[in-house]
Amino acid sequence: MSRHPEVLWAQRSDKVYLTISLPDAKDISVKCEPQGLFSFSAMGVQGEYFDFSLELFGRIVPEGCKTNVGLRNIICYVMKEENGWWKRLLKSEEKPAPYIKVDWNKWCDEDEEEQKSDLVSDNDDDATNVDQEDESSDDEGLLYLPDLEKARGN
């Protein structure tokens, strides 16, 4: 019997990011079909078989799909056939399976896409983007905590 890994998703107008949480996966197979069918299978570190198939909301370009295998996860970049924002990830209007979740670290709203560059580059595995201004200090945004030892009188 196969299991389902956790799948996080986010989108831009031209692509969908699918991050599959499966550390040290082996025998990874990813298939993208033009009608929007995305299939994944792999072996887990303890020999478990993981797989899933998704019928995506819109059509995709199989040649534009890339996979980046990292130590903790597999990131798939799925190119949309037509630029535009999908209402949801899957074609079905039913609630998605519990293993499919929104990737809030990569999420971008339609109006934000024009203002910001991509949060993740196509070759970055575990990217975190921190916006920094030239005049910011190291303490900016940190909560001030008093020295409790001094307050106690020690």
Architecture overview:
It is a single chain. With 154 residues, this protein is mainly beta. It is 6% helix and 32% strand. The protein has 2 helices and 8 strands. The chain has a 5-stranded mixed beta sheet with strand order 6-7-2-1-8, with no helix packed on it. The relative contact order is 0.20. Residues 117-138 have low confidence and may be disordered.
The helical percent reads: under 10%
Q: Sum up the overall morphology in one term.
A: extended
Based on the structure, what is the oligomeric state of the protein chains?
single chain
The pLDDT mean sits at: 83
Biggest β-sheet description: 5 strands, mixed
Radius of gyration over alpha carbons? 20 Å
Strand order of the largest sheet: 6-7-2-1-8
H/E topology pattern: EEEEEEEEHH
Q: In terms of structural class, how would the helical and strand content be classed? A: mainly beta
Euclidean distance between termini CA atoms? 61 Å
Proportion of residues in extended strands: 25-35%
Number of helices: 2
Number of strands: 8
Low-confidence stretches: 117-138
